[in-house]
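Agenda item 2: cytidine-5'-monophosphate complex prediction
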Amino acid sequence: MVKDKLLFNGNEKQVFSTDDPVQVIFRYKDVTTAYHGVKRARFNGKGALTSQISALLLGYLNENGVDTHFIRTLSDEREQLCRMIEIIPLEVVFHNRICGSLATKLGVEDGMKPENTILDLCYNNDELGDPLINRDQAVALKLATYPELDMMYDIVRRSGQLLTDLLHQAGIELVDAKFEFGRAADTGAIIISDELSPDTCRMWDEETGERLDKDRFRLDLGDLVPSYSIVLEKLRNVMETEE
Ligand code: C5P
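Presented output:
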């Protein structure tokens, strides 16, 4: 596998083409951003941790019937081989609890636990601040078709449940999770693209209630690296005993 040109240089990740036209290399950076890039810092070792956690979670979904862009990890622990996709500029956020911007929007206590799960559809557009959007608006902008949106919702419900159960076995509560999608370059199928890690999901220690995710940075609760290391260790413990 030969790493070729830099295709995309994001705040927290880079994407490179390879000698295979339908495969790319994702490289996770040590940089962390929040509030649409307004807050920014570097944490040594964060990229390796988010890459490895993401590889475990995306690999777990692949093995359990939900297709994602993840193929395999590479020798550099910040890198992984992924399927090339055509980006769908939509995000679906799965909420087990009402936290963060949703708590502010609904005027409820941060962390309120409803009896149902909540799915939010957002337009992935930095200039507009990733606003909430509804299905009709998404179709009107030709971002996706109604059947594709149905598929995305189905994927999120199944993945949200799989990840909630897996993390629970590891002693971690999945509070919410953000999913992004693309159309696979090889088959055209809708698959999960982008990472799943404490950078994109809220994760709380079930015993202590401690936040183990990017909220540590957003809310100035301290270094990310020790918390992300705990997430990786707990996941490895439970996934290694499963094999
Ligand atoms: O910021 P907000 O409270 O809306 O975040 C909801 C979920 O989506 C959180 O898990 C957060 O980490 C994730 N998120 C993200 N990227 C963004 C905004 C939110 O991964 N740009």
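Discussion summary: The radius of gyration is 17 Å.
Owner for follow-up: CH.
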